[in-house]
Amino acid sequence: MPMSKSRYMDALCIIAMVLAVAVVALLPLGERLGVLQRASAAPAYADRLFDDKRVHTVDLQVEDWGAFVEQAAEETYIPCAVAVDGEVFQQVGLRAKGNNSLRLTQDYGLSRYSLKLEFDHYLDGGNYYGLDKFSLDASFQDNSYLKTWLAYDVMRFLGVPAPLCSYAWVTVNGVPWGLFLAVEEPEEAFARRNFGETYGQLYQPDYRSLSEENADVALRYVGEDPEAYDNIFRNAKFSPSKSDQARLIRALWILSTGENLEEAVYVDGALRYFAGQVFLMNWDSYLGPTGHNYFLYEEEGMLMILPWDYNLAFGTYALGMPEPIRDPNRLINYPIYTPAEWEIMRNRPLYHNLMQNEEYFARYRAYFDQLLEGYFESGRCEANVHRMANLIYPYVEKDPTAFCSLEDHRLAVETLLEVCYLRAASCRGQLEGKIPSTLRARMEYPGVGVDASHLDLADLGDFDDLENARERQTEALNQATRE
């Protein structure tokens, strides 16, 4: 080789080595800046079951489906085989899920329960392409079938870690059972996907009884004794050590002071979460009377609140409220700065103490503005809802266990879009100071706001639908158990 060409090749090799070193050095920085994803952020199951461009198939192969439905309210796991898009997985744990939805399904004599499928319940290391557990959401009190899907889409738009989801046509031993929403359950696979291989602790705070104080579910600091936080630690997704418990308790103490909050809270993530949560008018949540239906992630003493359970969002929450709000004008124009009564707000430090900080409050307003402009006012919401409604329509049409008629489904989709349009208009007016944005201001100017009087939020799904669905679901159950 001529000397000049050799020197040229040597120079190219040196440049290539320098570039390689630079790329390796920049990988962590790119990940922190959100430019690059961890490898775990795109697991194999994400492009399979959770590809939401099509409706998937899930066949539950259960020996005695009638017995399972009869005992569903006990939430006891049974083993079954599951065929996901034709691929069979053996010894999968199956049980019903839910709180009030499960109780009411039983009370109304219905058989369409939301379900959990746990691949590693009986088989150590069992998984579906890396996924340990997913749920099948029954769209209880959601005639549109879209509320939960849309809520998670809103959260992902805001940059909040949210479960993946897609629609699945569910059969039982080959017999049609209905259209469900498959949802990634927040456990190990979810944690790896969102936080990497060395993820922290994950909790689902929930009460034993609403008659108790449940200060820990509200994320209030009540002392250093871990036993005072039973509703958190009892519902840990992993096994927290004493040091894990101590870190979380210390974070709650910092939160309680209202100072140096960035030492204990992923503030930016919380502000994004609350912008979405308040828009969605979901009071069966941290900002509602129950204070639950969220996940809490803790890593190195820092807390992050994560979204969960939206079948009663968009102003349709009535359970647990002695005098449920049904006035559409009041709901659509509900304040975005004080989204709950004072008694609730002062006991929700993760929202209340953040909003006392002027800088954080300004960022909350900015995220609200981004949500309105980028998701609702841009037409993105309408396009997404129409895309998914068109995708699932043939399956809703033939759903043997549907909670509603096909006509009611169509009406619910139209109503959901109208709710989003009116809520966005009200929130925009509140941000611009044209519509009262606090409960006190609404009391002073009760008639100021977007006119939503033509709305009937019961069209999204209500108790009457449960009565009407009994005969349909009984026939479907008989069909599934006759085969």
Folded structure, characterized:
The protein is built from 16 helices and ten strands. The chain has 483 residues and is an alpha+beta fold. Strands 1-2-3-4-5-7-6 form a seven-stranded mixed beta barrel. Strands 8-9-10 form a three-stranded antiparallel sheet. It is globular. The termini are far apart.
- Give the spatial strand order of the biggest sheet: 1-2-3-4-5-7-6
Which ranges are low-confidence, i.e. pLDDT below 50, for 5 or more consecutive residues? 1-9, 11-39
The overall pLDDT average reads: 91
The count of strands amounts to 10
Properties at a glance:
single chain; 483 residues; alpha+beta; 7-stranded mixed beta barrel; 3-stranded antiparallel sheet; 16 helices; 10 strands; 14% strand; globular; disordered N terminus
What's the quick description here?
The protein is α+β, with helices and mostly antiparallel strands and 483 residues long. It contains 16 helices and ten strands.
Write the SSE topology.
Elements: H1 3-33, E1 56-61, H2 65-70, E2 78-84, E3 87-97, H3 100-107, E4 114-118, E5 133-137, H4 147-157, E6 165-172, E7 175-184, H5 188-195, E8 201-203, H6 230-233, H7 242-257, H8 267-279, E9 294-299, E10 302-307, H9 328-332, H10 342-345, H11 349-355, H12 358-376, H13 380-397, H14 406-431, H15 439-444, H16 463-482
